[in-house]
Design a protein that fits this description.
With 185 residues, the chain is an alpha+beta fold. Helices cover 30% and strands 19% of the residues. The chain contains six helices and seven strands, in the order E-E-H-E-E-H-E-H-E-E-H-H-H. 35% of the residues are buried.
């Protein structure tokens, strides 16, 4: 009733979480976009920083999302299809949990990690995980995308063995055609 501008039923905000009315900010589900608690928390921080006079704004380029099913599903960044639609030349590397020592030892060998890279630059565009503890593993993918990591950065990062995060390194190696623990796809 106060004249807030709506867009598809949500309160319209800019990258600073400002609405069309001075001194009114909106965060979380009412502002649309991803319906995730961690997204709303980040929005709250940005809005508070803006209100305090800091030069802060949203950047959801590396927003992880998780589906808490069995097995878990986690994703961050672009899918191969999205990368193509945005004009990238994507290449995918995939590593199955069935080839991962820790997954086998824990009896959780269903699943895989998929790394989507820009074939022209090697930049990591997306990481997608289906399997045990995907909700924890996806944070490494979010960090990689946020920092502008390349597949080579992931492949050269030494991961302890046997662990589940090795699957991210292995998928990056597969994307580069350098996989040694599985046949490259």
């Amino acid at each position: 009733n106060i004249g807030l501008e709506l867009e598809r039923g949500f309160i319209k905000v800019n990258k600073k979480l400002q609405t069309n009315i001075a001194n009114i900010y909106a965060i979380g589900d009412v502002a649309g976009g991803f319906m995730l608690a961690h997204k709303a928390s980040k929005e709250a921080i940005v809005a508070a920083e803006v209100i305090a006079g800091h030069k802060s704004e949203l950047d959801f380029y590396a927003m992880p999302a998780v589906v808490f099913t069995d097995p878990e599903i986690a994703t961050v960044g672009m899918t191969e299809k999205e990368a193509i639609e945005k004009g990238f030349n994507p290449k995918v590397g995939k590593f199955p949990f069935a080839a991962l020592g820790k997954a086998l030892a824990s009896g959780e060998s269903d699943g895989f990690v998929k790394v989507v890279i820009n074939q022209d630059t090697g930049d990591v565009l997306g990481i997608h995980i289906v399997g045990h503890d995907a909700s924890s593993l996806i944070s490494e993918g979010a960090l990689a995308i946020e920092m502008g990591a390349t597949a080579e950065d992931l492949a050269l990062t030494i991961h302890p063995h046997p662990t589940l995060p090795e699957s991210i390194m292995e998928a990056a190696e597969a994307a580069l055609g350098k996989a040694i623990h599985i046949v490259s796809q």
